[in-house]
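To whoever picks this up:

The parser on our side crashed when reading a file containing two proteins. I've narrowed it down to the boundary between the first structure block and the second sequence. Both blocks are reproduced below exactly, byte for byte. First block:
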Amino acid sequence: MIVDLFAGPGGWSHALSVLGVRDVGLEWDEWACRTRAAAGQLTLRTDVARYPVWPFVGRTTGVIASPPCQAWSMAGKRLGLLDQPLAHQAVADLAAGRDTRDQLLAACRDERSLLAAEPMRYLYALNATGEPEWVAMEEVPDVLPLWKQYAAILRSWGFSVWTGILNAADFGVPQTRRRAILLASRTRPARPPEPTHARVPEPPTLFGPGRARWVSMAEALGWGATDRPVPTVCAGGGPGGGPEPFPSGSRKTLADARDRGTWRQPPRPADTGRLRHRNRPAVPAHENAPPSTGATPGWAWSLRTNSQSNATVRRADEPAGTLFFGHRANQCLWVAEPATATAQDTSAAPEAIRITAPEAGVLQTFPSDYPWAGNKGQMFSQIGNAVPPRLAAHLLSPHLGRPLDPDDFTLAA
């Protein structure tokens, strides 16, 4: 079997299904488990840090791990950086068969910091029987030093290992999401996949097929195609209504953003029940963008990731910045910006529009009809923490000996 630690809503699992393989995911979050169940993925709802390894011994060909990144992410307090020496100590101890996690956890500033060491507990137990054949792990860039420690240990066990930073946009993901990757194998040289896309397209040559231009948000979402359904947003907290699970301070942040002029209230269409339809933002004029429909003259649409002054803002004819959401889901907005030098009257700008969960999922390369479970906050949390399936498929394809057809991932559906 393939064991997927911290499986989340199924980024790795969906990639494996595209490649014709299944995994067993270990996941704690209730709503991620419900999403996985609706997507038909095998799941054990459990705490990865407490689940025994013996059920997998003698049966495991591959181990996948994407530990929770909140302790290390730029979107959080980054206490994981302060706890990094403790995480290194946990990895070293587990690789030697010593379980010091409880003592080290008591000294951590963020209880999630040691989760990045958990895969070593599984790998140590499996190595006793010559397992697994391969390993694939993913985390935010600041975890790369920990991955290098894993690499040194795995090499001493007979693995070929590669570690490094990959940009998801280089593999057809409409998002410049940079991640620390570890790839290891007992049966083949470990190396990163060849990029298929680039910021500037590269024509085919005698030495290779070339690279396509980075996939834009507009291209991924199919904007401008008249046969696409109009997206919807949910009134209240989600498809089932209810409160939005954001911390009490987040609404104050939105209020402060309004005062700073960095946030615009979305339009309020007439109530049509729990689901409200809204017009799709128009694609800005660009030589590689799909033809737009319903464009507002003089204005182009961009995606703003949050209300902070340093928020990433990308035009729709570019890939998105890294989508992380968390409690800022309501602050990720489609905003209109002047498309020409003559469009300077900001009072005439179209109202900002919140991104929807299906749109965010597509920008992570999930199918547009992926069955996200939970209310709006729970869905966005899953999406922001997931591995882009298209990137995952590029990482896994060589291990499985299954070629990846670019048509296997239809970004807009």
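<<boundary where parser fails>>
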Amino acid sequence: MKTLVTYSTKTGNTKKVAESIAKAIKNSEIMDISEVKNLDYDLIIVGTWIDKGTADTKALNFIKTLANKNTAFFFTLGAYPDSKHALDCVENITKLFIDNENKVLGHFLCQGAVDPKLIEMMKTKLGPDHPHGPNPERIKRWADASLHPDETDLNNAYVYFKELVEKL
């Protein structure tokens, strides 16, 4: 099966997960979304970081170019993977693929460190009452996210996509 693992990354988190996934799939090709020149693959796995509840702009634009493909996706986000926000992101990204009649075969998500520049901006420009401001709960989540993706996350991605491809 000819498989593409492609990703968009801002801090390197999503690239780390993509590399783990590519190792799990024999004969897969891995590349940054900006390097993709053709879509002649049996399976296209797209990785993104989360921006405003969905795929980042680069990944979003790439996903819109896919039509009638077998796809899967993965993402990293600063929120906890079991949060409502994470579940909303799964729904939003799934819809992007389905809107162009792609078949979504699976998805994987894990926490990832938030861009330190974004944290600094939120700390200096937003008050603690702002939905993205630095309250104690959010500061703890940022600290927790800074430890991810870790080896467990990378191994979980590896196993998830290895098993997904074996079932096809």
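After patching the parser it read the second block fine. The radius of gyration is 16 Å. The chain has a mean pLDDT of 95.
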